[in-house]
Design goal:
Layout (H helix, E strand, L loop, with lengths): L1 H12 L10 H29 L25 H15 L5 H26 L8 H21 L8 E3 L2 E6 L5 E6 L2 E2 L8 E3 L7 E3 L16 H22 L5 H20 L2 H7 L10 H19 L8 H18 L6 H4 L1 H24 L1 H6 L8 H7 L4 H21 L5
Antiparallel strand pairs: 1-4, 2-3, 5-6
Helix pairs in contact: 2-3, 2-9, 3-4, 3-9, 3-10, 4-5, 4-10, 5-6, 6-10, 6-12, 7-9, 7-10, 7-15
Length: about 425
């Protein structure tokens, strides 16, 4: 909203300083600052309100150290994260941008789904919360909307590069030489395509339509039959992965902030012709505006971490974790980096994988040796993985810090994939 106000003041009255709102970097910085202010200052009030309403977490007995002390800790803290994302985005982003609209819908959709789950757990005293099938329906529904918008919306395009940037040598009569840099050239008209980025390959673009092009000569146009299910899969997997990661104080918020920084940089370079050319990645018009949104996301995660770090004063609940995972998934898809998610979101991935492995290994042992043997010979002491390390005697602060280090290493590796081909 402030963008449109200052844009009007700049054009109509040449208002001093109003033009600074045209710079994405300035608006992203302001969104980050406002997000921190909202989560730090108003977050405290929200926590106090939740405590007065006695909206506390009911902790299941898992035999973990320090578990009983967490009983009654306020939950639904994801409301802080959602408010700290939505408000700065509305203030500083171009609201008419299709990518911003998509991210706002994602935040509210999965935040609402998570809130419903927390509401059932807290107020209805049902520890199971929202039935799993209803969660899946909500996630699939969002994936269907996101996939359809990204395929059918006319502003979701890329621009093909016609010529790379070149440095020409200029020879003067007096013998001096100089270098003249010619910028990259892109096609005049944007292209509607289903291309995405593949890590580690030199020709690093994949068109989903090519997966069914073998069926008929004109089948490339039916690439949405592959693309939309892929979007649904990514949204469902990543949102559930973030939900599983939210098991000990500060883990989900901290790792998500690291992921957000990487996604913000990738969005910035994807929306800039010079950087896109240098890194040999797709130039995606209008995607630079996503930097403002992700700046608010980073600020929200860091600000929430102020209260969620050990010992946690508030838990984000499914209200926050489902929204965070969905944001990461849809953002990566929007900038066509979804195939980097297994690397960038490696913490989410391993946490989810540990649960899957635990369940299937238990079923295998049960079928082969019986229930008692399966209980005594579990693959992990407890799943997800962070609970395994708790059972092994590590303090949760140490576990969280080491996961942060791993998350940073994975973030660096994600950047490396852009040049390591």
């Amino acid at each position: 909203m402030l963008y449109y106000l200052f844009d009007y003041l700049d054009k109509a009255f040449d208002f001093p300083g109003a033009g600074v709102f045209h710079y994405i970097s300035f608006r992203a910085a302001m969104a980050l600052i406002f997000s921190l202010i909202i989560s730090l200052i108003f977050g405290k009030r929200i926590i106090e309100f939740i405590r007065r309403k006695q909206i506390g977490e009911t902790i299941r007995e898992l035999g973990l150290e320090g578990q009983k002390q967490k009983t009654g800790t306020p939950t639904m803290g994801g409301l802080i994260i959602i408010a700290a994302i939505i408000i700065p985005t509305l203030l500083f982003a171009q609201i008419h941008n299709v990518y911003i609209i998509l991210m706002l819908v994602t935040t509210l959709w999965l935040g609402g789904l998570g809130f419903l789950d927390d509401y059932i757990k807290v107020f209805k005293k049902d520890k199971e919360g929202l039935k799993g099938k209803f969660k899946i329906v909500g996630q699939v529904g969002l994936g269907l909307i996101v996939g359809s918008v990204l395929y059918f919306q006319p502003d979701v395009v890329i621009k093909e590069r016609v010529a790379k940037a070149n440095s020409d040598i200029i020879q003067y009569q007096d013998g001096r030489t100089d270098h003249k840099l010619s910028p990259p050239k892109y096609a005049e008209h944007p292209t509607k395509t289903l291309k995405t980025t593949i890590p580690f390959l030199k020709n690093n673009e994949l068109d989903y339509g090519s997966w069914i092009s073998w069926a008929c000569g004109d089948c490339m146009k039916y690439g949405w039959l592959i693309f939309i299910p892929m979007v649904i899969l990514v949204v469902t997997a990543v949102s559930n992965g973030a939900n599983i990661t939210d098991g000990i104080d500060g883990l989900a918020a901290g790792t998500s902030a690291i992921i957000g920084v990487v996604l913000g940089i990738l969005a910035y370079v994807s929306g800039n012709t010079i950087f896109a050319d240098y890194l040999n990645i797709m130039y995606i018009p209008y995607s630079g505006e996503l930097v403002v949104f992700i700046a608010a996301f980073i600020g929200a995660c860091i600000g929430f971490l102020w209260y969620n770090a050990f010992p946690a004063q508030v838990f984000m609940g499914d209200t926050g974790s489902l929204a965070i995972g969905g944001i990461v998934a849809v953002y990566a898809i929007a900038i066509r980096k979804e195939l980097l998610i297994p690397i960038l979101c490696g913490v989410y991935f391993v946490e989810s994988l540990s649960v899957i492995m635990q369940v299937y290994y238990f079923k295998y042992q049960k079928r082969k040796h019986g229930v008692e043997f399966a209980k005594e010979h579990r693959l992990f002491k407890m799943a997800p993985l962070h609970h395994h390390y708790q059972k092994s005697g590590f303090h949760e602060s140490k576990i969280v810090m080491r996961f942060f280090i791993i998350g940073i290493a994975l973030a660096v590796l994600t950047f490396v994939t852009l040049k390591l081909r």
